[in-house]
Amino acid sequence: MGLITAYEIKQNTSMGGNVDVDKFIHLLTDVEVLILEPSLGTALYEKIVTDYNEGGTNNLADDYLELYNKYIKPVLWHSVFAQYLRDSVVLAMNTGSFTNSPENASPSNLEDIQYSAKNAQSKADVYIERMERYLCDKNIPEYDDSQPNDYDVDPREVSTISGWYLPISERPKRGMYPGGGSGTNGEYL
């Protein structure tokens, strides 16, 4: 079960209400694992998922609920929509792969699709940056402490450019802005 619904994606993006859920809901898992987990770290990501799956937002409280409502949901909405825009151009069917060409409409050119997908991913990137600054300012043990297993993903600053990840090797220190503070001397926010 994903952290958001198909309805929420449609309501909070430019995705049309008549888009079949089965055309994009599978992208939610990919976005959670490839975009959200690297930003939260495995321990915090799994806590949010477990608490949500056991009782929805009723199991999330205080900083966790604020993190979920203000940052996680918008990251997921916009990232799923961006990925859908990139994937929706080609349809894979029993008889092969085809370019989608709806009746009574002309398909968008690739440049327009790339522009729209980049725009949607840029919105998600803004929420990711804000989320990471929020996490540096709060005392959330699953984010601040080391991960329980060597194979878990450590939370790190993840710079994304339209879905491409450019990880920075050093995790920001708690209370510090990832770029060294708002000024040049590494001031605290």
Describe the overall structure:
The protein has one domain. It contains six helices and four strands. Strand 1 and strand 2 form a beta hairpin. Helix 2 packs across helix 3, helix 2 crosses helix 4 and helix 4 packs antiparallel against helix 5. The longest helix has 28 residues. It starts with 5 loop residues before the first helix and ends in a 22-residue tail after the last strand. The C terminus is likely disordered.
Please tell me what the overall shape is. elongated
Radius of gyration: 18 Å
Number of helices: 6
Number of domains: 1
Q: What is the residue-averaged pLDDT? A: 81
Largest sheet: 2 strands, antiparallel
Biggest sheet, strands in spatial order? 1-2
Strand content: 5-15%
Question: Structural class of the secondary elements?
Answer: mainly alpha
N/C terminus separation: 36 Å
Ranges where pLDDT stays below 50 over 5 or more residues in a row are 173-189
Number of strands: 4
Share of helix among residues? 40-55%
Order of helices and strands: HHHHEEHHEE
Write out key terms for the chains shown.
two-stranded antiparallel ribbon; 6 helices; 189 residues; two-stranded antiparallel sheet; 4 strands
Q: How is this structure best summarized?
A:
The chain has 189 residues and is mostly helical. The chain has one domain (6-155).
Architecture blueprint of SSEs:
Layout: H1 6-12, H2 26-40, H3 42-55, H4 62-87, E1 90-93, E2 96-99, H5 110-137, H6 141-144, E3 158-161, E4 164-167
Antiparallel strand pairs: 1-2, 3-4
Helix pairs in contact: 1-4, 2-3, 2-4, 4-5
